[in-house]
Amino acid sequence: MNLTDSALLNTYSLYALYSAMAVYALAFIAFAIDLARRSSAVDAIQAADLIEMDTAPSAGFEASAASTLTLKRPVLSRISARIDNDAALPYGRSSSLRVGVALTVLAWAVHLAATIMRGFAADRVPWANMYEFAMTGTLLIMTVFLIVLVRSDLRFLGTFVTGLVLVLLGVAALKFYVEVAPLPPALQSAWLVIHVFVASLATGMFALGFALSTVQLLQSRRENSELDDPAGASAPRSAVASALRLRFLATLPSSATLENLAYRISIIGFILWTFTLMAGSIWAEQAWGRYWGWDTKEVWTFIIWVIYAGYIHARATRGWRGSRSAWLAIIGFSAVMFNFGVVNVFFKGLHAYSGL
């Protein structure tokens, strides 16, 4: 391919990428509208019950010494149960969800076209520098999300996933963009295709597990809020309002269900990351004559592996459940993002292929 055709394809790739970002932004708005609508529906149920109890204080309120009304546990449990039962009904029929998914699929298709055109423009696989890796990595994150949607209804993660992809693409386009350039000698290997692709796929799995773990923490906080105080203590109405702020959580799966989903997805990501670590060692031996050299990128890849290995081991054998396992998954994905956004840019070494 001559230079003119390559430059033209690269320009089209940029246009397609910006177009995909615009559609992702619309999908993000559609998913956010769905969450807002469900929160409003839950708030309406809550308000109706509070009004009912205001007219009959003896049914569930008592006056404190400071003349502040407090809710007794039996009434609080009844409100929570009614919200959970009523608010979950419209979830599958939400028009905003359908629009959000349709826009996400459209954005994914345009994103795929941008990535393919960049590859043809470079006449190689499009993940040889930070810009291209961000483009391909976010594409795989979204691909994992859409594939999982076929088996499990995780559309409630749409706001998070589209938002994450949008931010990463924006940073890549504004800060990491470089013109098409030939590969350095060390990257001219079939392992570039295998090693980096599997690492990107693992990152997609970790991103989805991170999203589930984040929602799990919020859901667990809701489930263990003052509304369900095991001691039966009463809570001021101001505390109740604070606990119910993210009421759309009442329409989502329980924290235990979210935790199990995050765990299964993270196991798949861990298997892929293990292969990434092994393939990288084999490639390093071919390129530099040693399997391991304590390069910064190699060390952080191993740190990520250790974090997720600890997460899986602790949950499987030590019985870690709830917030502790969720925080390990969140720390693991934070390490992945640090490895991508900080190590690649600010640390020098044999893996310094940011292109910047």
Description:
The structure is a single chain. This protein is mainly α and 356 residues long. The chain has one domain. It is 72% helix and 2% strand. It has ten helices and three strands; from the N terminus they run αββαααααβαααα. Strands 1-2-3 form a three-stranded antiparallel beta sheet. α4 packs across α6.
Can you give keywords for this protein?
356 residues; 10 helices
The global form is flat
Total of DSSP H or I helical runs spanning 4+ residues: 10
Q: Describe the strand arrangement of the main beta sheet, using strand numbers.
A: 1-2-3
Contiguous uncertain segments of 5+ residues: 57-90, 230-244
Number of domains: 1
Provide the residue-averaged pLDDT. Answer: 79
**DSSP strand tally:** 3
Give a short account of the largest sheet: 3 strands, antiparallel
Percent helix, as a range, is over 70%
Distance between the termini: 25 Å
Beta-strand portion reads under 5%
Order of helices and strands: HEEHHHHHEHHHH
Structural classification: mainly alpha
Q: Compute the gyration radius: what is it?
A: 24 Å
